[in-house]
Amino acid sequence: MSLLGSISSINPLGGLNKTSDMASALQEGVGAMIPGGLGKTQELAGLTQAGALDGVSTGALAGAGSVQGSDSSSAFVNFLDNAVQEVNGKMNAADVQEAKMMTGDSSNLHQTVISMQEANIALSLMVNVRNKLVESYQELMRMQV
Amino acid sequence: MDMIPGIDVTASALNAEKIRMDVVAQNIANANTTRDTDGHAYQRKMVSFESVLDATGKGVQVGRISSDTTPGETIYQPGHPDADKNGMVQMPNVHLSTEMVDLMSSSRAYEANLSVARNAKQMATKALSIGK
User: Fold this and answer.
1) Predicted-complex ipTM score
2) How far is Cα A32 from Cα A28, in angstroms, rounded to an integer?
3) Which residues of B are less than 8 Å from A58 in CB distance?
């Protein structure tokens, strides 16, 4: 199934050059999961809310979930897109710091380590978001028709 | 978005303490420098911190690095290349005891900020485990 294929193609271990692919795959994956039905949209937003996206402002998610109408799906997709861009930004920053340290440019050892740690946590968060999405999708598919 | 709580503020404090330690190292290294780049004896440098409003809170930055203007002692040593016509040599106003206390204070502050960073990182990692 193409939907499952697009979700499984989100491999966060694939490296930085795949982050934009990740973003578009997430976007079309989530967009396909929400076929425009209002009830399903709210349910999906509710499921992922219960999935506890920690560290990310759940206020934004609550806002996206409570918006009535077909805006919900695009708000959620935008939120995910922003999250992915943020992770990419943090990993790039960590790389820059590491390069500077290796060439002897920067003398701030603690800054380098802090950037690496932040990038690590951002990536873990991204992996957890993906896991929750897949879980919610599977939950939805289990519904009897 | 701050992944690790308060990390930007802590990073600025670590920067500031590192600069303070650099200045202490410079003072100690130049404790016997009788001729600075301006021709006079080395004057001890002092660091003053000021707080700066960050996105997540009040960070620290080095306000300015100023010279301590109290004169050092003058020693009678006529053979010294930097002696004036009376044979007196102006020595730097660096006192090793003061510098060592500054060094200890600065390194303890650095360690305190490090443990804040470490605990904040642990908190963020534990928070991620809620979703697992």
Assistant:
1) 0.80
2) 6
3) none
